[in-house]
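User: Could you check the structure of this?
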Amino acid sequence: MLAPKLWYGQPAYALDGKIVCFFQASAKFKTRYATLGFNEAAQLDDGAMWATAFALTEATPAVKKRVATLVKQAVS
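Assistant: Sure, the predicted structure tokens are below.
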């Protein structure tokens, strides 16, 4: 089960003490998008190349569904 943590003052989730995914708010970093990122502990490997971060501009139902899918895959 994922455990909520603060990581550099931002929300993150850990599995067995290792940060798996994290969120960076656009307001804190003065960027045009928020970031959902994944660390090395995430099980997102897909061949020789895969994404480890995603830009988020709004939380639509489709975006929420995609985030849930990615997080489930990351901890599988």
